[in-house]
Amino acid sequence: MKRYALAMQLDMLRQRQHVNEQSLALAGRKNMYGNSSGRACVVWNDRSLWGDAVFAALNHKLGNMDRDDYEIYLSVLKAGGPYQYDSIVFFDVEASRAHFLNQEHRKDPAEHGIPLSYFEQGRLSYFMQIRQQALSGRASIIYIYNDPWVEVSHVLDKLLVQPSTDKVREIFEAAPELHDNATEAEVSAAFRPIREAYDAYYKEALQTLPVLA
Fold first, then answer.
1. How does DSSP classify residue 28?
2. Which of 39, 116, 134, 212 maximizes the CB count within 10 A of its CB?
3. Model confidence, pTM
4. Measuring CA to CA, which residue among 139, 160, 148 is closest to residue 202?
């Protein structure tokens, strides 16, 4: 992993930047080259550039990328132009649950699978990235506690009445700031008031959801 981490992350990043450019054009918005499709539509991406940056940060944290490599990644990320999203849907799963599912779905029982520590570090990295973006006010973040798994209709309902960027910033401002050495218990404790704030918001907002034919 140390040998190929930077090359893999850069390859994934450039591909995702290309998808992002296509998405902007399809959505009828000018991309960094000044091009657009001239029509407007809704475009879904399975992972944002924010999410891609989480795994680069995780590789750096785990020692697979040194500081110089990580700086190279960040410079390519920045050079790709602004990556603005209207909405980010963040599915949160407890690290222990994600680890259990990974162990349960291994094709070869003899394999050790991904260690629990990886999921713990990943969830921490997601928290730090999501909080940073929430405080920047760059997109409306829809937080969903994804355990047990939610239905697509559940997600769409929340998209229709998503909180404003100001409301999102307010919710995340109330959450504690975590550091790279935070434990999973601290991460769960930090996510708890966020989940409660979103639950309270949607309990009221979903009452005004229009009935779609």
1. T
2. 134
3. 0.85
4. 160
Tell me the average pLDDT across 141-160.
Answer: 90
Q: Which residue range is the domain that position 172 belongs to?
A: 86-213
Residues 118 and 107 in one domain: yes
User: Distance between CA atoms of 128 and 56, rounded to whole angstroms?
Assistant: 13
Same domain? For 72 and 90 the reply is no
Domain endpoint, select from 85, 111, 136: 85
Whether the CB-CB separation of 194 and 172 falls below 8 Å is answered with yes
Q: Among residues 34, 53, 85, which one ends one of the domains? A: 85
Contact (CB, 8 A) for 93 and 46: no
- Closest to 56 measured CA to CA, from 112, 20, 107, 11: 11
Alpha-carbon separation of residue 168 from 38, 86, 197, 201 (angstroms): 31, 13, 10, 10
pLDDT at 70: 96
> Considering its fold, how many domains does the chain have in total?
2
Q: Are 20 and 49 in contact (CB under 8 A)?
A: yes
Tokens of 86: 């209207």
Residues in Cβ contact with 77 at an 8 Å cutoff, skipping those fewer than 6 apart:
13, 49, 53, 56
